[in-house]
């Protein structure tokens, strides 16, 4: 894969991860770089599995490498995942629900721009350092994909802001906040 020449999603293949809308939005976006999915099997993923199989079958029928294609890895090592994250043009993570949103934080800490959801914990994790979309709105996700793919200046800005935002969740900052909370109790 070319450096910054693909979009990335990683996570379990389950309904809350919104993979079907990611694939639909990617197809609708018109971008000409691959979408890489690193997905382990999750639960209730029959629709996503079927959609992904149909997509892969269509690609095989074309009989030649395509710039616009979906690539799936069921497993990669932690080192390979970090390499994929560092090399992605952007992380796509418009999840329907997350308890925290660690993939968003991991991507930002590596300087990778992020497209994520305006729901659950994700806006707090992303701050103003990501493109934030309604995860139920496929056209909005498609527009965000096209924007982050085609606007190098925006990507550079998101990468810079992402590094700063990720720093607010560092172990040092956590210890500072914890110490401040304990100081208020005494």
Structure description:
It is a single chain. The protein has a single domain, classed as Rossmann fold (3-Layer(aba) Sandwich). It has 8 helices and 6 strands; from the N terminus they run βαβαβαβαβαβααα. The protein has helices at residues 19-29, 46-62, 78-87, 102-109, 122-126, 138-150, 152-167, 171-185, and strands spanning 7-13, 35-41, 70-73, 90-93, 114-117, 131-133. It has a 6-stranded parallel beta sheet with strand order 3-2-1-4-5-6, sandwiched between helices. α1 crosses α6 and α4 (102-109) packs across α7. The termini are far apart.
Write the layout of secondary structure elements.
Layout: E1 7-13, H1 19-29, E2 35-41, H2 46-62, E3 70-73, H3 78-87, E4 90-93, H4 102-109, E5 114-117, H5 122-126, E6 131-133, H6 138-150, H7 152-167, H8 171-185
Parallel strand pairs: 1-2, 1-4, 2-3, 4-5, 5-6
Helix pairs in contact: 1-6, 4-7
């Amino acid at each position: 894969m070319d450096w910054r020449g693909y979009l990335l999603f990683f996570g379990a293949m389950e309904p809350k991860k919104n993979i079907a809308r990611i694939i639909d939005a990617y197809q609708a976006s018109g971008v000409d770089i691959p979408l890489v999915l690193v997905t382990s099997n999750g639960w209730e993923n029959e629709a996503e599995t079927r959609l992904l199989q149909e997509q892969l079958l269509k690609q095989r029928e074309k009989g030649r490498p395509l710039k616009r294609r979906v690539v799936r890895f069921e497993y990669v090592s932690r080192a390979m995942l970090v390499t994929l994250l560092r090399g992605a043009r952007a992380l796509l993570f418009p999840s329907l629900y997350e308890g925290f949103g660690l993939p968003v934080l991991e991507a930002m800490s590596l300087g990778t721009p992020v497209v994520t959801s305006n729901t659950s914990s994700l806006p707090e994790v992303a701050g103003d350092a990501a493109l934030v979309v309604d995860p139920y709105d496929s056209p909005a996700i498609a527009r965000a994909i096209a924007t982050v793919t085609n606007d190098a200046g925006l990507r550079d800005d998101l990468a810079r802001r992402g590094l700063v935002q990720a720093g607010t969740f560092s172990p040092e900052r956590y210890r500072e906040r914890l110490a401040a909370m304990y100081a208020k109790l005494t």
